[in-house]
Write a structure and sequence with these properties.
mainly alpha, globular
Length: 175
């Protein structure tokens, strides 16, 4: 088998197995803590900040980041809307169930990324040149992916927070 094709197909197969395992727990609601929604976006924002300070993007890099952030924001908004939020009848706490559509949406994004990388010939990974410099095209791709990820996570979490505020409170004795 062609190593380039294998480097595209193998990650998709691994991701599919992980997602198949996740599908088993889709109907099991998990406790939802709206107060912790800010943690992951903050961690990603700090990592992105360090990356941008270390490797400042060019004008084209900023343009790519804005475009990728807009696409990521749309993806995050959609993913946040696809999650199921409900109140636990016994405790009154919020519960969240992952939507199969939300999980398939993320799988489609990851698979599309691998296929695009294969088609553009960049699926073999980033290789530094002899002097240790990372090629500018690789930095543009990472800038875009970083902006996409940050915007997607921020908008998904913001959407979940907005939706959690709208879930009616639990009332004792009312079913």
């Amino acid at each position: 088998m062609d190593p380039k094709l294998l480097s595209t197909v193998l990650p998709i197969v691994i991701i599919a197995v992980v997602f198949a395992l996740r599908f088993r727990n889709l109907n099991k609601p998990r406790p939802f803590n709206a107060g912790r929604l800010w943690l992951i976006p903050a961690i990603i924002a700090v990592a992105a900040g360090f990356f941008l300070v270390s490797f400042p993007p060019s004008a084209l890099g900023w343009l790519i980041m804005v475009f990728a952030a807009l696409i990521g924001a749309f993806a995050g908004l959609k993913r946040g809307q696809l999650m199921h939020l409900e109140r636990d009848p016994q405790t009154g706490g919020l519960l969240m169930r992952q939507s199969p559509a939300a999980l398939l949406f993320v799988f489609a994004i990851l698979a599309a990324r691998r296929v695009i990388a294969f088609e553009t010939g960049s699926s073999s990974g980033v290789q530094a040149d002899a002097s240790g410099h990372i090629p500018p095209a690789a930095l543009l791709v990472t800038d875009g992916l970083m902006a996409f990820a940050l915007a997607m996570v921020v908008l998904m979490r913001w959407t979940l927070w907005q939706r959690a505020k709208a879930v009616p409170p639990h009332l004792e004795g009312v079913s």
